[in-house]
Amino acid sequence: MRERSNATSHRLFLLTEKRVDIRWRDLDGLGHVNQAVYQTYGEEVVDAWFREVLGLEEGEVWNYVVVRLATDYRSELRLADKQVVGTARLVRLGKSSVTVRVELRAGSDGRVAAETECVFACWDPDTRTSRSLTDDERARLEAMA
Questions:
Q1: Which of 5, 18, 120, 141 has the fewest CB atoms within 10 Å of its CB?
Q2: What are the residue ranges spanned by the domains of the chain?
Q3: Cross-strand pairs, 66
């Protein structure tokens, strides 16, 4: 992970950039990436971020469900952009939730394409309900604050 300071001197810990290829099937009738596909890109970024932060192996997933999602679309992505480059950072922790901010940029020129804030609830696949963060998960995530 790399550290970056913003204008107010808060430290932001970012995932090493996750690059995702833009595919022909991602485009809609207007020739740009469909808005729903931005969420798929964001999920790929977040999954990689959770793996990195929580120390999971490649292919191992952290069980969560999305309980809130808000996206601001800043510019279109087109096939000519070739890739979308995403980063994620922790915004806040709850008892059983994690709020993450995801930024997606065009691979061609770095312009911001979308910013999403997403609240994830920890998920217990056996009971099919939310669960509290474990002490280990909380410690690893708090290290990002």
A1: 5
A2: 2-142
A3: 120
Please tell me whether residue 122 adopts helix, strand or coil conformation.
Answer: strand
Kindly report, residue by residue over 15-26, the tens digit of the pLDDT: 568 999 999 999
Cα separation, 41 vs 49, in Å, equals 13
- Model confidence pTM above 0.70: yes
Architecture of domain 2-142 in CATH? Answer: Roll (3.10)
Going by DSSP bridges, is the β-strand pair 83-93/112-124 parallel, antiparallel, or unpaired?
Answer: unpaired
Angstrom distances, CA of residue 61 to CA of 1, 51, 58, 79: 19, 7, 8, 29
Amino acid residing at 34: N
CB atoms within 10 A of CB 124: 12
Exposed / middle / buried, residue 106 (Cβ in 10 Å: 0-12, 13-18, 19+):
buried
CA–CA dist 73, 41 (Å, integer): 13
pLDDT tens digits for range 45-94: 999 999 999 999 888 889 999 999 999 999 999 999 999 999 999 999 99
